């Protein structure tokens, strides 16, 4: 290994970027092999000059490219001069010995195509963050702790040999503009091409909770994740499984039923447009909290968790409709085997909830409400 090139993409977030570059500089001081930082920026307004100033302060190679996230990473990779590329996100902090641990894994396994380290979230524990950490979206960042090798890993702390990266075409830029699934796809293509991806549990990175805590941005994030799942399903149909009754579809069917009943039986049934989503999320929250015995999760927090999960499904459903992939609406991506158990459990819970819902609806109709 002749050295490590660190690729960072940025868009504003000057304070977090400053902290990241400072942490990377400390990591560079811990190693005796050459390193470089490639900074690909797409900031707007005054942030451009602020980021340029940070680039000069930390001696990075600065490039301005107002393109998608995947395209920026690909652009940065092509500008790297060393054998190993390390991707880090601008809202992260590198630990002092991260470069040392990555170098050790490539020396121990010269055949390695890539390697990834874990990520831990740090920062203020807001009420909404305590909701976010109960969702499955933070789990994937700890996968490098699970075993010796990986099939893919999030790009926030992911390294790859430049030759391997370029040989599979880098990140697929046909994925949606907003991030969602492109890192999974790139890792799977590396694995399919015969490259081994190793776990490096010691190569730890810290991720700021602040960029995941704003409610609006988190809902937007999970919506894009759902849209990205369809692109993965198209490329890797073997990762899909039947997920029926799908929750978001059942809610839409229920709303349609109550609209019809409102027109044909009693206008009071129009209230079901609001009641049905609340009923579904409320009943699911009760089932999850009590049957799964979730510790420290109040009904209110679990309710918001379920809202995030449903919004993720909405992103998937919307992309299916937009691309006219109607046959995929009842499917779900399975990222790892334990997820299958949760999917089966959710299918049973959804079936029970809607059986009860239909029973109540039948009684209301019979009573002439």
Task: Give the secondary structure arrangement, pairings included.
Elements: E1 4-10, H1 14-28, E2 35-41, H2 46-57, E3 61-64, H3 69-78, E4 84-89, E5 92-94, H4 98-108, E6 112-116, E7 119-122, H5 127-132, E8 149-150, E9 157-161, H6 162-167, H7 182-192, E10 196-199, E11 205-208, H8 215-235, E12 240-242, H9 247-264, H10 272-291, H11 299-322, E13 331-333, H12 338-366
Parallel strand pairs: 1-2, 1-4, 2-3, 6-10, 7-11
Antiparallel strand pairs: 4-9, 5-11, 6-9, 8-10, 12-13
Helix pairs in contact: 1-2, 8-11, 9-10, 10-11, 10-12
Describe this structure in words.
This protein is of the alpha/beta class. The protein has helices at residues 14-28, 46-57, 69-78, 98-108, 127-132, 162-167, 182-192, 215-235, 247-264, 272-291, 299-322, 338-366, and strands at residues 4-10, 35-41, 61-64, 84-89, 92-94, 112-116, 119-122, 149-150, 157-161, 196-199, 205-208, 240-242, 331-333. The model has no long low-confidence stretch (mean pLDDT 91). Helix 2 (46-57) links the parallel strand 2 (35-41) and strand 3. The strands form three sheets. It has an eight-stranded mixed sheet, sandwiched between helices.
Taken as a percent bin, the fraction of beta residues is 15-25%
Placed side by side, the strands forming the largest sheet appear as 3-2-1-4-9-6-10-8
Q: How would you classify the helix and strand content by structural class?
A: alpha/beta
The dominant shape is: elongated
Cα distance spanning the termini: 75 Å
What are the low-pLDDT stretches, counting only 5+ consecutive residues below 50?
none
Helix content: 40-55%
Helix and strand element order: EHEHEHEEHEEHEEHHEEHEHHHEH
């Amino acid at each position: 290994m002749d050295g490590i090139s660190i690729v960072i993409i940025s868009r504003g977030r000057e304070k977090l970027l400053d902290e990241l570059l400072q942490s990377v500089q400390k990591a560079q001081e811990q190693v005796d092999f050459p390193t470089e930082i490639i900074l690909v920026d797409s900031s707007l307004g005054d942030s451009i000059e602020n980021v340029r100033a940070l680039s000069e302060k930390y001696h990075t190679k600065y490039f301005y490219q107002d393109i998608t996230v995947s395209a920026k990473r690909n652009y940065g990779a092509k500008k790297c001069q060393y054998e190993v590329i390390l991707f880090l996100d601008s809202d992260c902090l590198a630990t002092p010995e991260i470069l040392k641990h990555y170098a050790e894994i490539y020396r121990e396994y010269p055949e390695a195509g890539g390697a990834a380290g874990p990520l831990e979230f740090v920062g203020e524990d807001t009420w909404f963050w305590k909701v976010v950490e109960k969702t499955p979206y933070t789990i994937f960042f700890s996968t490098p702790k699970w075993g010796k090798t990986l099939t893919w890993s999030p790009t926030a702390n992911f390294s790859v040999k430049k030759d391997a990266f370029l040989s599979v075409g880098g990140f697929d830029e046909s994925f949606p503009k907003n991030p969602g699934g492109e890192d999974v796809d790139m890792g799977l293509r590396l694995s399919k091409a015969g490259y081994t991806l190793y776990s490096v549990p010691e190569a730890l990175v810290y991720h700021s909770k602040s960029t995941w805590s704003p409610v609006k941005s988190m809902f937007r994030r999970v919506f894009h994740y759902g849209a990205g799942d369809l692109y993965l399903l198209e490329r890797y149909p073997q990762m899909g499984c039947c997920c029926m009754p799908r929750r978001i579809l059942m809610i839409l069917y229920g709303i349609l039923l109550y609209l019809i009943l409102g027109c044909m039986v009693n206008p009071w049934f129009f209230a079901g447009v609001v009641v049905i989503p609340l009923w579904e999320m409320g009943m699911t929250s009760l089932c999850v909290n009590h049957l799964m015995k979730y510790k420290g999760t109040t009904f209110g927090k679990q309710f918001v968790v379920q809202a995030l999960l449903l919004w993720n499904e909405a992103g998937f459903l919307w992309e299916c409709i937009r691309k006219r992939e109607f046959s995929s609406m009842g499917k779900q991506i399975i990222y790892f085997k334990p997820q299958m158990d949760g999917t089966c459990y959710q299918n049973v819970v959804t079936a029970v909830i809607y059986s009860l819902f239909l029973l109540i609806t039948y009684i209301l109709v019979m009573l002439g409400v």
